[in-house]
Amino acid sequence: MSATTPSTTERLLNPWVRRVFGAAALASLVALVVVGLFVAPPDAVQGDAQRIMYVHVPAAWIAYVAFGVTSITSLLYLWPRTRSLVWDRIAGASAELGVVFTGLTLVLGSIWGRPVWGVWWAWDARLVTTAVLFFLYVGYLALRRVPAATDVRAKRSAIAALIAFVDVPIVHFSVTWWRTLHQQGTVFNEKLDAEIHGTMALALWLGVLAFTVLYVYLLDLRYRLEALDEDRETRELDAAIADRVRGAVGVTS
Amino acid sequence: MSDAGFVVAGWVITAAVLVGYWLSVLLRLRRAERTVPPAGDPTADPTGGPTP
Fold first, then answer.
1. Looking at the domain assignment, is residue A8 inside a domain?
2. Shortest Cα distance from B16 to chain A (angstroms)?
C-alpha cells in the first residue's frame, strides 16, 4: 500500500465514545420534540408557525459549523506543516453534512415563510445567499468525485472549500447589510443580546445542542466512509495499473 | 393549511431527512466495509481480478 493509503480501521472517535454521542443525540432530539412542540408557548405574533424555528435555526447553525470545519481542515491540509489526508477526509465528510443541513434549512425556511410571509420563496438576500451556499458546496462535493491522484484531489478540494466559505459571512450578515424580508438575528444580533425568553430560549438551545451532538456523531460515521472509499479507490487504481503493466509485458514478450 | 399543518410538515421533513441521511451513511458504510480485503491480504483486488 502507498504511504497515503488510509488505515481501513481509522475513525475519529473510538466506538464507545461514538455510541455515547449517538445516544445523547437521540435523547436530546426526543427532548427537543417534547419541549419544542408541547412545552414552549406559541409566539405572540406568529402563533404555532414559529415552532419551525426550533429546527430551522439549529439546521442553519450546523450548516455554518460544518462549512467552518471544512474550511479549517482545508487550511490545515494546505499548510505544509500540518498536511495530512486526515484533514482532507474531515473536510469532505463535513461538507456533505453541511449540504444536507443547508438543504434542510432552505426547505424549513420555505415552509415557515408560507404562513408568515405568504410566499414559499422570495428573492431575498438571506434566501438567495443561502441557496448560493448550497450550490457552492454541491459543486465542492462534485469536484471531490472527479478522478485524480489523492493529493491532487485533496489540494484542489481544499482551495475550492476556502473559496466557497467566503459566502458564509455574506449569508450571516445579509440581514444587516441589506433590507430583507428575513428577520434580523434573534440570538446572534448586532448587540449580542438574545431577544428570546424562557421556554422558547430553552427549546432553541436544546435544538442547537441536539443538532450539534448529532453532527459530531454523523461526522464520525461519514469520516469512516471517506477513509474506506479512499482505500478502495487506491486499491482499484493499483489493480488497474498492475493490469496495464501485465498487458504491456504480454505485448512485448 | 393551518399553522399546525406547516409545523407538522416541517418537523416530519426534518425527521425524514435526518433518519434518511443516517441510514444512507450506514448503508454506504456497510457496502464499503464489504470491499475491505481480509487481514493479511492488503493487495486483494476489489475488482475481482484483472479484466480479460
1. no
2. 10
